[in-house]
Design goal:
The chain is 37% helix and 17% strand. With 310 residues, the protein is α/β, with parallel strands linked by helices.
Length: 310
């Protein structure tokens, strides 16, 4: 009986996220197992890993990949991440059979065109606002008919992060906490993903958060499975807002409102939102940049107009 693969050091385990009060080693193992299960559920019924070329985009220290080591003996499993120490650990401990490499914050990846059969990206598009460039990079490296599975922050995370109810038709794409060293919060609605991501990919399946008896969604990511469409696309084509779609304007208004709340919080020295607190230094730098900016006075005027009277 083969021994289980080694676990990375605690620093790398916690770098990919944990839950307050949970044992980080147990959480790391459990989340890796759960994500593998979600990926397998979203693959076509006739899918087989044998002979396939696969990429874990944003693999960290292998939280998910370590659960595919048996399949990696019969396929080609790649993993990339911006974090050098995580990739170094993977190279030293799980390569072979894995093929890890470090990528930069911007495309391209060091991979050939049309060479991959499957990519998964969990907790990645949830933190990068350069979404169109990276989505087109996924399109470039996928073979014709290749599949992309990605998680997103939608109805299951909206209220937990922002402290307000989620309304699908009032949300498009919202990017908050640009200044956070841990990565921005990038939140999406399902209709927006179908509209914009669907231009370069065919939407195969959506996995929505489970709901309790009262209809409240579980606090977790949503997932989308996509098949590469033929053709070439530009970031501008993916980002274009359809003037005939009224939810585009409403979604932009929601995003603007939340940005005002965030700016108000930075200017006042309070971090808006109930989510995890960022590094204090990053918030202080952001406040100072806003105060020095030519936009500081107009932003204060906006804050005063939207702040309720006492």
């Amino acid at each position: 009986m083969s021994s289980p693969p080694p676990l990375p050091p605690l620093e790398l385990i916690t770098r990919v996220g944990t839950v307050k009060g949970a044992d980080p080693l147990a959480f790391y193992a459990r989340e890796g197992t759960l994500v593998r299960e979600r990926i397998e559920r979203m693959l076509p019924a006739d899918w087989a890993f044998e002979g396939k070329r696969v990429l874990d985009f944003g693999c960290g220290s292998g939280r998910v990949l370590r659960h595919f080591l048996a399949e990696a003996a019969h396929g080609e499993f790649w993993g990339c991440d911006i974090d050098g120490p995580s990739i170094d650990w993977l190279r030293a401990n799980l390569s072979p059979p894995l093929h890890p490499f470090q990528n930069r914050l911007v495309p391209p990846l060091a991979l050939e065109d049309a060479g991959l059969d499957l990519i998964w990206a969990t907790s990645v598009f949830t933190h990068i606002d350069l979404w169109s460039a990276w989505l087109l990079e996924m399109h470039r490296v996928l073979a014709p008919g290749g599949i992309l599975i990605a998680s997103w922050l939608g109805e299951g995370m909206w209220e937990a992060l922002l402290g307000e109810p989620y309304h699908e038709d009032e949300v498009g794409i919202t990017v908050l906490r640009h200044w956070d060293a841990g990565g921005a919060w990038v939140l999406h609605s399902e209709w927006w993903l179908r509209e914009h991501w669907g231009r370069a990919f065919e939407v195969l399946e959506i996995m929505r958060p489970p709901r309790d008896a009262g209809g409240t969604p579980q606090v977790t990511h949503s997932y989308i499975a996509l098949r590469r469409r033929p053709g070439t696309f530009t970031p501008e084509e993916l980002e274009r807002c359809d003037p005939a779609e009224p939810r585009e304007i409403v979604g932009l208004q929601t995003s603007l409102r939340l940005l005002r709340v965030e700016t108000d919080g930075l200017l006042s020295g309070e971090i808006p939102g109930p989510g995890p607190a960022p590094e204090r230094g990053a918030a202080e730098v952001a406040r100072e940049l806003i105060r020095r900016s030519p936009l500081a006075d107009p932003l204060r005027a906006v804050r005063d107009r939207v702040r309720p009277s006492r």
